[in-house]
Amino acid sequence: xxxxxxxxxSAPMLLPEYTGRTDAAAALRERAVxxxxxxxxxxxSDGVVLVVATDREQRGTRPPLGQRVGTHLAGLTGARVxxxxxxxxxxxxxxxxxxxxxxxxxxxxxxxxxxxxxxARRGEKAPGHLDERALVVDEALVGALRDADPxxxxxxxxxxxAELLVHGRAPLQVAAAVLAERPGVVAGDVxxxxxxxVLHVVAVLTTP
Length: 208
Prior knowledge:
This protein has helices at residues 26-43, 65-77, 93-104, 133-146, 150-154, 158-163, 169-180, and strands spanning 4-8, 48-53, 81-87, 111-115, 186-193, 200-206. It is α/β, with parallel strands linked by helices.
């Protein structure tokens, strides 16, 4: 795997089919695309490997939302999707660790792009309505990325995250296992927003 791990949201509004007259996701999309592009340029990447969660509720035969969003964002950079690693949204920490350890030694020339959201319960109009615990969990999530701290990502509780609709918990913990295999991980800019009560984060973590 390359030196960079990029984190982008799985927000449906990033996809063309969900863009209305006013593109509410324009700035977020631009940040995500730039993060993937800059990581690829810095690594001399020959493509991206997406890490995505299965949908909480499978509808039809379409790929998971995270895969569709990640593929679209990568396409906007001109990058090729070399592989898609799909983890069950409710996978155990042990399963995430094992998958991440396998991934750490795979695809040495590709940039790892982790498609993951925080809680969807950050406000009264959020998909899951307001749960004050969501703010605490999301703060820990964002802090873990800012500190480039895989142990803090491992500390996210699967049961609590399921209650708070943290759909990106499993991909984040897969990424944590990859980062734990790399000494000297550092974080670049970490951007977060929650305009509709769902935490969206764009971040790039690199190793020397």
